[in-house]
Amino acid sequence: MIDLANNLVRRIGTLSRSMIRALDIEMAPLGMGSGRFSYLFMLYINEGMTQQEMAVRLQADKAAVARTLAQLEEQGYVRRDSDPRDGRVTRVFLTDKSRALRGHLEDAVGRVITQLQANLDAPQQAAIREILQRMAESLAAGYEGINGGTGAGVNSGSPTGRKDG
């Protein structure tokens, strides 16, 4: 039986919500919500992505991505254009406004990361990155639809969804 009050899933969830709150605090003066900056970061790395590519990378519903992009477009942060080779495909591009915001966004995220890691030395930070990567890979291997996972490791006939029943 799991400890409902003090288990790994609960701790990771609590940490995730705390990071989102910290990002919201940092992003508020920039007029950018914590859920939106990740769209801009993705475009800073790979401008001209399709909405579909963004949905896959964000592991988000296509309709939710389209709504968020519409809001970002309305605010002047992105523009969406039809692909000249395939008019059915919509590509997303940065605007001068979002390019000008990049350094401020990176600084804000950097402050959250610095605070998050304040009590960890470099080897501990590296170990946590490695452990989190391995945990993500385990979930992907066990559940279809998680980071390209196939679900091969899960017995779908089990009432608990686990191989051991």
List keywords for this structure.
Arc Repressor Mutant, subunit A, 56% helix, mainly alpha, two-stranded antiparallel sheet, 165 residues
Topology:
Elements: H1 8-27, H2 37-45, H3 51-58, H4 62-74, E1 78-82, E2 90-94, H5 96-116, H6 122-142
Antiparallel strand pairs: 1-2
Helix pairs in contact: 1-5, 2-5, 3-4
Percent strand equals 5-15%
Shape: globular
Instruction: Please give the share of residues in helix.
Output: 55-70%
* Tally of helical runs: 6
- Strand order across the largest sheet: 1-2
What does this structure look like?
The chain has a domain at 8-116: Arc Repressor Mutant, subunit A (Orthogonal Bundle), CATH 1.10.10.10. Helix 2 packs across helix 5 and helix 3 crosses helix 4 (62-74). Strands 1-2 form a two-stranded antiparallel ribbon. It has helices spanning 8-27, 37-45, 51-58, 62-74, 96-116, 122-142, and strands at 78-82, 90-94. Helices cover 56% and strands 6% of the residues. The chain is mostly helical and 165 residues long.
